[in-house]
Structure formats: structure tokens, C-alpha cells
Amino acid sequence: MQSLIKISVIIPTHNRPELVKRAIASVYTQDIDQTSTIVEVIVVINGDDVVTRSALEPLNTLLNYSNLKILQIPEAGPSHARNVGVQNALGEWIAFLDDDDEWLPKKLRLQHEAAIVSTASNPVIASKLTARTPKGDFDRPRRFPKPGEDLSDYLLGRTGFFQGEGLIQTSVIFTTRRLLLEVPFSLIPKHEDWEWVLRVAKRSDVTIEFVPDVLAIWYLEENRTSLSTKHNYQGSLDWITRNRNLVTPAAYAAFILVEVGSQAAQQQQWKLFPKLLKLALTQGKPNAIVLLLYLAMWLLPLELRRKIRAILTRKKTATPTQFPI
Questions:
Q1: Which of 95, 161, 222, 250 has the most CB atoms around it within 10 Å of its CB?
Q2: 8 near 93, Cβ under 8 Å?
Q3: Cα-Cα-Cα-Cα dihedral of 246, 165, 269, 253, to 10°?
Q4: Cα-flanking dihedrals φ and ψ of residue 301, to 5°?
């Protein structure tokens, strides 16, 4: 039976047993026809985590979760965990799910349907999602790439004042195992998802495609510390410096001013204000919106900016999604 597995779902986790159980449950409620498209779930426990392993091992018996595999590796970060999951996968297709996110029931079916009709050898299928925050739900991205638009401009650039214009988040990436073996995730602490998609987008056998439906819930709890929420401006600055060849001058300037600048402002590194501005102006091409955002990030408190964004962009009130765990 395992030789017939079509899709492998990879979930890296560490010390969040209840959250990862919710993520796993959302995979087993998918409406995909498992008689023709068999799915396996590979949970990669990242580091010494007895509590999570003890919580997951009974699930096959208690909830009849078939093809659930649990791997445990020395702690080395989520990128390494995803790569290990890919190496151990049996499916032709790979879908990633972060342990604190969850999928809507039609997610795998719609992305698999889009993938098998794609003309590319290695399509990367993304989708919209709901960003769930304490201030409400926000459907992201607000738009898809324009014809001929460089992917770095779509992901990193800004043509509006609010976040979420362009987005490919890890929990909505669906692609071939072959591509992920040839181009694994870099073992870096931040921006590994951006780096991976920007690298593969340069290949002639890859297309970046989108399902227009909302297919996942991305939980953004503003007080929860994670790699993506730590204000480490130096790590982000080093990342864009290493990957300068993957981005346009406009995307480079936007990343310096909006991404690096926001983190530096949070750390109150005022000496960096003129340095980052000079870097963006001399080595990139910032537009007027990016320049205004840079000023706002230094002059307006973060909480005030969040309140303004919530008022102007919220689509609906957050409601919890319940799965049996």
C-alpha cells in the first residue's frame, strides 16, 4: 500500500504537542479521495522532546490515523527537519505544514489537482490563507503576481502601506519531492522559505502557481516568540546581503527599509536609521511608499501601527476551528 502513496505531508515540530496535534488533525480531515491519492504524514520532532512523542504515538490507534510516521532528530532547526522529512518521504508530491498552523479540508485536493495539470515539470503550487491574529482574521495575499513581475518584487516589494500584499507561506507550499531533493531548504535561522522559493523560481523547469482559494489558517499570535518574530535585524541584513543576486534593486531596497528597518526600530537602534537609508538609496531603488513606511516604522509605536492596520484591513472576525484531538 505504501508504494501507492502520492502525497507526503511534512510537519516539523518542537515542544508544542497540542498545536501539532491540531495540525495533524487538519490533515486527516482533508476531503481528498484517499483510495486513489494516498497521503502519508511525517512528523519530524526536532530535538529531545519526550512530551511530544508521547502525545503523538497513540494517535494511530486512538484516532485511526493511517500512514502517520514520527521521526525524531537532533535539534537543528526547522529547515533541517523539513529536509529530513523529504528524504524519508514516499510520495511524489510534498506538502509542508508548520506545527502551529492548520489546513482547511479542500487544501490538498485543490493543490493536487492544480499540480497534475500544470505544464511545468516541477510546479510550486501556493494558495491564499487566513492570517489569524488577536485583532482578527486577514485573508492573504491580497493579490497574486502580475504577468512578468519578478518574484522578489512580489514577495519583498511594497506598493501599498499594509502587510500581506504578496505572500507564499510555508504551510501552503505544494511541490514535487524531486525538486526538494535537488534544492533543499538552506540551514539558516530566518527567511529560509523566501530563499527557497526565490532560488527555485530561477529554474526553467519550475513555475510558481496559485490556487485562488483560502486553504490554510496561519496563526500569528503577536506575543508568541518564534524565529520569524524575533527582532534580529543583523540576521536579516546578512540574509539579503548573501542573496543579493536573487532580488531586484527595488526588492532589495524594500527588504532593507521595511524588513531590516522594522526590526532595527524595534530594537531602538537609532544609529542604523541613516545607514540603512543610505544602503537602500545607493544599492537599491526604493519607491515612495517604501520610504514612507520606513519613516513610520521609526516614528510610530508598533502597537499603534498594528491597531491602524487591523481597523483598515480586517475582513472578518476570528472564530476558532475545532478538530478532534
A1: 95
A2: yes
A3: 40
A4: -60, 150
Q: Which long-range contacts (CB under 8 A, 24 or more apart) does 302-308 make?
A: 302/266, 306/135, 306/222, 307/135
Instruction: Cell numbers for 5, please give them.
Output: 502513496
Asked if residue 230 has pLDDT above 60, the reply is no
Q: Is the pTM of this model over 0.85?
A: yes
pLDDT digit string, tens, across residues 45-97:
999 999 999 999 999 888 889 999 999 999 899 999 999 999 999 999 999 99
Contact between residue 105 and residue 25 where contact means Cβ atoms under 8 Å apart: no
pLDDT of 104 above 90: yes
CA–CA gap between residue 225 and residue 227 (Å, rounded)? 7
Cα gap 284→125, rounded to integer Å: 30
Average pLDDT, stretch 199-204? Answer: 98
Helix axes 272-283, 288-299, angle to 10 degrees: 170
Domain 2-219: CATH class, spelled out: alpha beta
CA distances from 320 to 136, 137, 157, 323 (A): 11, 11, 32, 10
Say if residue 303's pLDDT is above 80: no
- Give Cα separations from 243 to 100, 185, 236, 312 (angstroms): 28, 14, 11, 33
Contacts of residue 73, Cβ cutoff 8 Å, sequence gap at least 6: 44, 45, 46, 47, 80, 81, 84
Collapsed DSSP state (helix, strand, coil) of residue 185? coil
At 164, the pLDDT band (50, 70, 90 cuts) reads confident
Rounded to the nearest angstrom, the gap between the alpha carbon of residue 58 and the centroid of all alpha carbons in its chain is 29
pLDDT of 231: 55
- Greater confidence (130 vs 301) lies with 130
Grid coordinates in use for 33?
A: 479521495
Question: Can you list the positions of beta strands (E) in the chain?
Answer: 5-13, 38-46, 68-73, 93-96, 102-103, 122-133, 136-140, 174-176, 206-219
Please, are residues 95 and 26 in contact by the beta-carbon 8 Å criterion?
no
